[in-house]
Amino acid sequence: MFSFRLILVTIAFAVLFALIQVGLLSIAFEKLGLSSDSAMLLLISSLLGSGINLPLFSMTAGRCTDPQWQRPPTWLTPLLRSQPGKIVVALNVGGGLIPVAFSAFLLDHNPLPPGQVMLAIAIVATVCYLMSRPIPRLGIGMPIFVAPITAALVAIALLPQQSAPLAYICGTIGVLIGADLLRIKDIRALGAPLASIGGAGTFDGIFITGIVAVLLA
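Request: output the structure for the sequence above.
Response:
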């Protein structure tokens, strides 16, 4: 489990480094109307926040905890203490709280019709739900480019003049709803002690989903 997560973290860092090197992050943030300082703050906050999970509530597990899940990864906050037969549901700061807060910022600073935004989120969430699957000893998995491509196409179709902010909003929120919130029930059968909304933050693809969706839009 840990070796697989290490591979995911390494790949995520490599992708981020590549994006920075070719200036794609700067292009994406400019399309969202962010200054260089604000963009760097968002990036650093997302990276640091990916290691923080805020416990929300607990629920009864569908089966006994898998031995592979007995010891949570060391980057989890000490507040997370699972009990036998229980699953802690938490909100990841880097992959859940920050994308939601930034989406609210974009909604407040861009003329986006609420109806169009809700429709876009619903479409992306539906696609993410249908394409995501519970994976033993990993969690909920989904092809990483499904969400950003869907979000970009939906944003361009609905609001071509405001496709960049809409792509980020429906891409990130759609993933959180479709692949996380609607899939929490499936975590019961995996024997995991933790269900983290937003996954492992940046390393789980939420940050990359938003950036790629903006670039494509």
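The radius of gyration is 17 Å.
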